[in-house]
Specification:
The chain is of the alpha/beta class. It is built from 14 helices and 7 strands. It has 3 domains: 48 residues, Single alpha-helices involved in coiled-coils or other helix-helix interfaces (Up-down Bundle); 213 residues, P-loop containing nucleotide triphosphate hydrolases (Rossmann fold); 52 residues, Helix Hairpins (Orthogonal Bundle), CATH 1.10.287. 50% of the residues lie in helices and 12% in strands.
Length: 334
């Protein structure tokens, strides 16, 4: 570990919030000059990570994800835990900017010293999480947070990516979304460990209970994600706090089931292998797109594909051939 990284790593391990923020900023950096330092930092921190409950939360915009997280986070802290929340705000496709407003949406939670909220822009990363969300999760664990919540942008590809980095995946739905059942992808339902119908208060309470019943019936038709866990469907009101203690009890029960017989260890080992190949894929794509010879060919081949003069498969092979020829063993290129 370099001398520059050592104080930062020690700061993270001592729970220094500024060091934690700087560490996550370093690993999220897209600058090549920061990649080696980020790798050294993670190598030093990984023995101190892995001791948290990893919870993924997703749902359509307006379902109340931030309100649920705040209520659940406060309840966990009251029970003696330290909670880190990693949220992803969608970046503008035009300006690249992001609102990063989660701290304002979770005002009460963000004030508590036992909580840490880190909003990050999604950039051009698909899947509702950033490319470095997994590393950020590990850094939070190394800093002593024993509950890490990952919130995604919304329903879509996010479920698969979040399920691959967390222990429990929670899907939030609105009352009366039974009609929406036909439109929800089967895969999303199969990934969920817990389905929550939020906003079950006032006039919506009865509707929420009916919706929960519809989802319970639908789950009977799906193959369970795990033989050791039956997917739960619950109603709650994050606004009023009703049902939140029961939700937290289910989180703990699910974690206890995973801890039996080394299932949690095996689960995370599978995730780590997928993570390695995902990073390999992303790194190769980044290297290919940054290669000068490849970049010269991209507009030519894109034009040929757009005009229907060349099949995309042939164009892709040509790009790969240019890249591989420049990176033969023993060859050196700037």
């Amino acid at each position: 570990m370099t001398q520059e990284i050592a104080p930062l790593a020690e700061g993270v391990l001592n729970g220094d919030r500024r060091a934690l923020a700087r560490a996550i900023t370093l690993i999220e950096s897209t600058q090549v000059k920061h990649s080696a330092a980020a790798g050294d930092l993670l190598q030093h921190l990984i023995p101190h990570a892995g001791n948290s409950i990893r919870l993924g939360i997703s749902g359509s915009p307006g379902v109340g994800k931030s309100t649920i997280i705040e209520a659940l986070g406060n309840h966990a802290i009251d029970a003696g835990h330290r909670v880190a929340v990693l949220t992803v705000d969608p970046s503008s496709a035009i300006s690249g900017g992001s609102i990063l407003g989660d701290k304002t949406r979770m005002e009460l939670l963000s004030r508590r010293p036992e909580a840490y909220i880190r909003p990050s822009p999604s950039g051009n990363t698909l899947g509702g999480v950033t490319r470095r969300s997994r590393e950020a999760l590990m850094v939070c664990e190394a800093a002593g947070f024993d509950v890490v919540i990952v919130e995604t942008v919304g329903v879509g590809q996010s479920e698969t990516r979040v399920a691959e980095m967390t222990d429990m995946f929670m899907l939030l739905l609105l009352p009366g979304s039974g009609d929406e059942l036909q439109g929800i992808k089967r895969g999303i339902m199969e990934l969920a460990d817990l389905i929550l119908i939020n906003k079950a208060d006032g006039e919506l309470r009865e509707l929420a209970e009916r919706s929960a019943g519809e989802y319970r019936n639908a789950l009977h038709l799906l193959r369970p994600r795990s033989e050791d866990w039956r997917v739960e469907v619950q109603t709650c009101s994050a606004r009023d706090g009703t049902g939140i203690p029961g939700v937290w009890d289910l989180v703990l029960r699910h974690h206890h089931v995973l801890e039996e017989g080394d299932k949690l260890k095996k689960h995370r080992a599978r995730q780590a292998r997928r993570w390695m190949w995902s990073e390999t894929h992303d790194s190769l794509i980044s290297s290919l797109q940054a290669d000068p010879a490849v970049r010269q060919q991209i507009p030519v081949l894109e034009a040929a594909v757009s005009d229907g003069k060349m099949p995309p498969t042939v164009a892709a092979r040509k790009l790969l051939r240019v890249f591989l020829q420049r990176h033969k063993p023993g060859d050196t290129h700037e």
